[in-house]
Amino acid sequence: MAGKATTAEDVMRGVAGGVLLGVPLLYTQETWLHGRSISPVIILGGLLGTFAINVALSYYVGFRPGRTHRPIEDALVGMGLSVLLSVLLLLLLDRVGQETDLENVLGVAALTAIPVSIGFSIGAALAPRSGAEKSEEIPSGGGDLLVAAGGALVFALNIAPTEEPILLAAELDGVRLGLLVVASLVLPYLMVFFAEFGGRDRRVASDGATQGPLTETLLAYAVAFVVCAAMLAMFGRMDEVNGAATARVVTLAFPASIGAALGRMLI
Amino acid sequence: MTAKRGSRSSGLGRERTTFEWVLLLVSVAAILAVVAGLVASELFGRGGPVDLRVSVTDTGEEASGGRTLEVTVTNVGGTSAENVVIEVTVGEVVREITLDLVAKGDEGSAAVVVPTDASGTPHAEVLSYTKP
Questions:
Q1: Helices in chain A by DSSP H: which ranges?
Q2: CB A119 within 8 A of CB A17
Q3: Are the C-beta atoms of B93 and B61 separated by less than 8 Å?
Q4: Inter-residue contact A95 to A172 (CB < 8 Å)
Q5: Residue pair A152/A263 in contact by the 8 Å Cβ criterion
Q6: ipTM score assigned to the predicted complex
Q7: Which of these, A212, A257, B81, B131, has the minimum number of CB atoms within 10 Å of its CB?
Q8: CA distance B26 to chain A (A)
Q9: Do A39 and B28 touch (CB under 8 A)?
Q10: Nearest by CB to A70, which of B2, B12, B103?
Q11: Quick check: A258 pLDDT over 80?
Q12: Is A89 left (phi over 0), alpha (psi -120 to 50) or beta?
C-alpha cells in the first residue's frame, strides 16, 4: 500500500480533510483580522511549527491510506496545497481581493493554511475503512438524508449563532453566492464519491431511492439548506423570506454541506 | 501513473510519477512564495507606527432620511489599527463612526448620514484607535 503512487483520489482525501478543519476558521472574523495584524515573523514561526507537526502526522497517518514513507514530501505537498486551497476559499468568500495589500493576503492565507494543512495530513483518518458498511442497513434513501441532516446540523451549529454568516452574506455579491452554491455541491460530491475514503465503492454502487451520486449530492445540499434556514430562524436571523435571508442561508449552507458529506462518509 | 517499484515496501526507491512531480513542484512553489513574501514583508515592508489618512466624500444622494457622506480611511503606516474612531463634521452637525480594523496598507470605509439641510464643507478626522 505504501509503495503506491499518489493519485488524484489521495489528494482529494487530503483536500477533504483540509476543508473540514479549515472552513470553521474561515468563518471566524478574528482570522481575517489577525491575519492582517500579526507580525510576519510570528506567522512564519507558526508555519514552521505546523510543518513539523505535519511531518509527524504524515508519518503516522497521512493523506494516503496506510503509513506513508515519504513524510517530508507529503507534508510539503499538504502545506503547499493547503496554501493554494486557503487562497481559493478566501477569494470565494471575498476575504481577500485585488484591493487587498499583498502583505495582508499572505498573512491571512498563511494563518488559514495552518489548520487546513493539519486536516490535509490526517485526511486518511477522517473516515473509517468500514465507512458505508452501515449504509446497507439504512432503510431506503431517506436514511442517508437523515445522516446528512445530522452532519449539517453538527457542523453548522457552531457557526449559525455567530455574526460571520450575516456579515459574509451582506458582503458577498450574486456571483460569489452562486459560486458558493457550486462549491457546496462539488466539494461534497468529490469528498463522498471521488476521494478514496473507506466504503466509497459501496456508496457509489448503492441503489437506494435517493442514492445515485448526483441525486444524493443535490438532495443532501437541499437538506443542508433547510437545516441552515431552520437554524437561522431559530436564532432570529431570518424573520422573513427575502434576498438577504436567502444569502444568509446560502452562506451557512457551505459549511453545512461539508458537514453533511462528513456524516454520509462516517455511516 | 504507472509507478516503478523499487525497494520492497518503503516507496522511497520508487520513481515519482509525473503527477507526483507536479504536485511536489506546485506545493514547493506555493510554500516558497508565502515564505519569501512573509520574509520580504518583515525585512522590507513598511515599518513605523499607524498612519491614518481620512477622506470624506459627499455623494449628494438623499437616502436613509438625509444626505450620505462616504468616509474612507487609508492606513499608510506600518502597523494595523483597531477600533478606529472617526469624527465627521458638516457645519454644526457632528457624527462619529468606528471601524473595527484598518490593516496596514489597507483601507476601510463607512458612511454617515447628515440632515439634508446641513451646510458646510464635510470634514473628517481620526479621534482614536487601538493597537492590535
A1: 8-26, 29-37, 40-60, 71-92, 102-121, 142-157, 164-171, 174-189, 200-205, 213-234, 243-266
A2: yes
A3: no
A4: no
A5: yes
A6: 0.84
A7: B131
A8: 7
A9: no
A10: B12
A11: yes
A12: alpha
